[in-house]
Amino acid sequence: MTRTLAGRGEERHEVADLIREIQQLTAERRRLAARSADGLELDANEREIDELRWLLADAARRAASDGPARAA
User: Fold this and answer.
1) Alpha-carbon distance 4 to 12, whole Å?
2) Where are the beta strands (DSSP E) in 1-72?
3) What's the whole-number average pLDDT of the chain?
4) 3-class DSSP state of 65
């Protein structure tokens, strides 16, 4: 049981780290848009945010469950 709780703690840290990274990229996207960056930079930023959102969803599922996340 202790092992499960320790694993959850690591997953919760992963969730927090992903949230911070998404927040940083979102702030960067706002700066890019404010300076009228080219579409390629904005597209790359948005793709990275989307990827992190998927990773966040998976990490949140794992943190909330007892075992590894399973595809529905």
Assistant:
1) 12
2) none
3) 84
4) coil
**Calpha distance 32→42 (Å, rounded):** 7
The pTM is what? 0.74
Take residue 40 and report the two structure tokens written for it: 């390629």
Quick one: tokens of 12? 């919760």
Give the three-state DSSP class for 38. coil
Listed by start position, the domains of the chain span 2-64
CA–CA dist 58, 14 (Å, integer): 10
What is the Cα–Cα distance from 42 to 29, expressed in whole angstroms?
Answer: 7
Q: Which residues contact residue 69 at a Cβ distance below 8 angstroms, ignoring those fewer than 6 apart?
A: 58, 61, 62
